[in-house]
Each structure stands twice: as C-alpha cells, then as structure tokens.
Design brief:
eleven-stranded mixed beta sheet, 17 strands, alpha/beta, Rossmann fold, globular, 450 residues, single chain
Length: 450
C-alpha cells in the first residue's frame, strides 16, 4: 500500500495532535519622544546645523531635520546652484546663507554640527575636514568609498573627539529596537542564519534619475565635483546617476545592502567585519553604461554564522530581514515585525511510523499520546506576534538621536567604528564581485584579500 502521509501533512496537523492552540496578536510600538513634544525649546537649547549636499537624500534630511523641535538650519552648501534655491525653499528662509564652498560652514562658530549627504567619493574629505574643524557630523551611508577611507575617518573622529553618526536610519527605528530586545531575550534562541533581501523594478529604483534641466558647467562646479576621480568632460548623467559607477559610488551594496547590514548588526549586537564574502551577480537589465551590478547576491561569514543577501534592480520584492534560530523566526520589514515561535519538538507521533506494521504503529502512537498529550486546560499556545511600528526609513528619529548626542556628548550607536564595519562588508561584497572569487578580511593589514 502506498503511503500518502508526507512531512508537510505532519507539520500541518502536529499542533492539533497535542492539543496545541494557534493564536496571533498585533501590537503597536510606542512613538518617538520628539513626536510627543509640544512645548517650545528654549533658545539656549536649540541645535543650529549646516548641511552639505541638498540632492535627493540631502533634501529629505533637511526637510526632516527642520521639523524636529529646537532644530534650525543656518547655512547650506552644494556645488549645484539649483540646490541653493531648494535649500531656501525647504527651510522657508529666503535669506538662508548658501555657498558652493562647504569649508565656509566649517569655519562658522554659530554652527553646532553638520549634516552631509554627498556622493560616496566625497565622504572621507567632508567627514575628516569637519572633525578637524571641531564639528560633529551626520554623514550619509555608506560611511566610506574605499577600505582605507573608512579607517582615516575613524581616526579623525577619535583624534578630534567628535561625534560622527552614519545615516543608516533604521538603526534608530523602534522596529529594530524591538527586534534587538527580543533577540537578547532569547526569543529565537542563538542565531543560526540571517537572510536579507531587497528588490526594485523601475528606472528610478535603478538610479536612472532625470538630470536637472539647467545643469551645466555654469550652474555646477563640475571639476570640483569630480574630486580625486579621473577628470572627464561635463556629464549630466554622471552627476545625477553617480551610484551607477564605482568611481563615485558603491552600487547596490553601498546604497541598499548597507541598510540591511546595519540593521542586522544592531539587532544582533554585532559590531564587526565579516570574515569573508562570496558574490555573484552582473548587469542583467540596466545596460546603460554603468559598471556596477544591478543584481548582487552575497554570502557572508560572520564568525561562523552565514548571512545571505540578495539585492536586485530587475524584480520588485518586499524588503525583509529574517533572523532564524532554533526557537523561532524574526521577520522585520519597513513597517512591521513578526515573531513566529517554533517549539523545536515533535508535536505528533513521528511520520516515520508509516514504515511500521499496523499493529506496531498503533502501539507506538498510543504510547506517544499517553506520554505527550497535555492535560485539559494546559494545552500549549503557539503565539505568532506582529508588531506595527513607524516607517524604519524615516530619517527623523536618526537625526533626532544625533542632535541629542551633540547636546549631551553621549555616544551614538552608529558611530564611525560601527559605520566603518558596515561599509567594509559592502566593500568586501564589491571586491568579491569584481575579482570573481571569495575574499577574506585580513585584520593584520586591514585589507581585503583573495
């Protein structure tokens, strides 16, 4: 007689086999402190900041920052004149001081700190200059453009005793905080595997941004924008779509993966560089002259724990960070997190008994139920819990935490060391892709080796 009882059937019926109860709950997380603040902030307690770079990300940071209690933008710098106008529009201040030279902001005594949202190939120069000028700085992710850049930035922050916060904002989200709490409480047991995934499927998601209509060598300081990269003729696409080229950006790794890696590091309490990275990928859809992959798959080794990352620009998929352990799974996303417990024990007689003769099978199952069936009223509850939180991509909580640290001098979570470790994972992923082989972190030389 053919056996039709599968493992899937076993798992579907096992909870009921022991009288287990299935349930689910949805819990809303607490709002952030600044959302509850109604009172005006005393003038002496205000934060006066300058912003460097008012492009797509910078305009979002500026728009969020000026809504925070006690925050005031007093100056803005950008190499493109159109963004001077934009900064004044966002702040509602037609007389806002604007300049192409960010050093002018660093020289001002009335600026408490800096927010910087410049292309990756500018991060090191701006952060090191700010620290040397005695300014605390919030710098967009990824922290560095190269491996060596990151260590220079860490040194500048430490040497000048400056607060440096890197802009992977979900580190400050209440969803990540709850996931961290649950992991520390042992709700999924010791981590065994992490899966991180994000997919897009549209030109804007693939960075094919429309350049500003008036962009020209007259409205943009092109030679300065190139910084220390090879000098090339003025190119609108390179300016607007810089993430597509490794000369200026770090691809999907530095744009997307760094958020997932930073959130993972915060959730699990890791602050380290992966041992190794193995990448596969390529340019499958966006064959527009870019040299960074539009599909990037990476397997990291974090002290023996495998971390798999899938990043793609050709298929839309939900952004998800999944943490798997023997006691359950944590799934975290942009607006919610769910915990699915797993008892890790047989909840019904083993389906292997289908290989027993019928009399033996009946005897085994009778014995199993005698030993494992709970008493009436003491049935276990297998409780899936979902948490609804604020958008983990909202930058305001992260900026708020930075401003509070500037005032209190207490350390931030995503400081220069943390930011460097997250960025190094991205650099290792890119190095593995371009070298076509697994790469390893060499701590002695602080370099990536094949």
């Amino acid at each position: 007689m053919k056996n039709h009882f599968s493992r899937r059937d076993f798992l579907k019926t096992s909870a009921l086999g022991t009288g287990g109860l299935l349930s689910g709950r949805v819990i809303s997380l607490e709002p952030y402190p600044f959302e509850r603040m109604q009172q005006k902030v005393a003038h002496s307690d205000r934060i006066r900041f300058g912003i460097i770079g008012i492009g797509m990300q910078g305009s979002g940071l500026l728009s969020g920052a000026v809504t925070l209690p006690g925050a005031e933008c007093v100056a803005a710098a950008d190499l493109y004149d159109g963004r001077h106008t934009l900064a004044r529009e966002i702040t509602g201040n037609p007389g806002l001081m604007v300049t192409r030279k960010y050093q002018e902001l660093l020289d001002r005594k009335d600026i408490d700190c800096i927010i910087a949202a410049v292309p990756d190939h500018w991060h090191k120069r701006v952060v090191v200059d700010a620290c040397n000028a005695g300014k605390d700085i919030y710098c967009e992710k990824p922290m560095s453009h190269t491996v060596s850049d990151g260590f220079e930035m860490v040194d500048a922050a430490a040497r000048n005793k400056r607060i440096v916060q890197i802009g992977s904002q979900r580190v400050s989200s209440n969803l990540c905080a709850k996931a961290r709490e649950m992991y520390k409480n042992g709700d999924i047991g010791e981590i065994e595997n992490v899966e991180l995934t994000l997919g897009r499927n549209d030109p804007t998601g693939a960075w094919e941004y429309p350049p500003p209509f008036d962009l020209s060598p007259q409205t943009l300081d092109w030679d300065t924008w190139l910084n220390d990269t090879p000098k090339i003729p003025f190119n609108k696409e390179r300016f607007a779509r810089w993430r597509c080229w490794k000369e200026y950006g770090t691809g999907v790794a530095g744009d997307l993966m760094v958020h997932l890696i930073s959130g993972m590091m915060f959730t699990l309490g890791w602050n380290e560089i992966p041992r190794s990275a193995t990448s596969l990928g390529g340019i499958f859809r966006w064959k527009d002259g870019r040299n960074m992959p539009d599909l990037h798959l990476v397997l990291f080794d974090y002290h023996g724990v495998p971390v798999f990352v899938r990043l793609g620009l050709g298929t839309e998929t939900t952004e998800l960070a999944r943490f798997l352990g023997p006691k359950g799974i944590l799934d975290t996303g942009e607006f919610n997190m769910s915990w699915t417990p797993q008892p890790g024990i047989d909840l019904a007689p083993s389906y292997y008994d289908s290989s027993f003769p019928s009399k033996m099978r009946a005897e085994y199952e009778a014995q199993w139920y005698t030993e494992h069936t709970p008493k009436l009223g003491q049935e276990p509850i297998y409780d899936q819990v979902s948490y609804r939180g604020h958008d983990w991509d909202d930058m305001r909580p992260h900026i708020w935490n930075f401003f509070q640290s500037v005032k209190s001098r207490k350390p931030v979570v995503e400081d220069a060391v943390f930011g460097n470790h997250a960025a190094l994972a991205c650099h290792m992923a890119n190095e593995s892709y371009f070298r076509g082989k697994t790469v390893f972190w060499d701590e002695a030389s602080k370099t990536v080796k094949s």
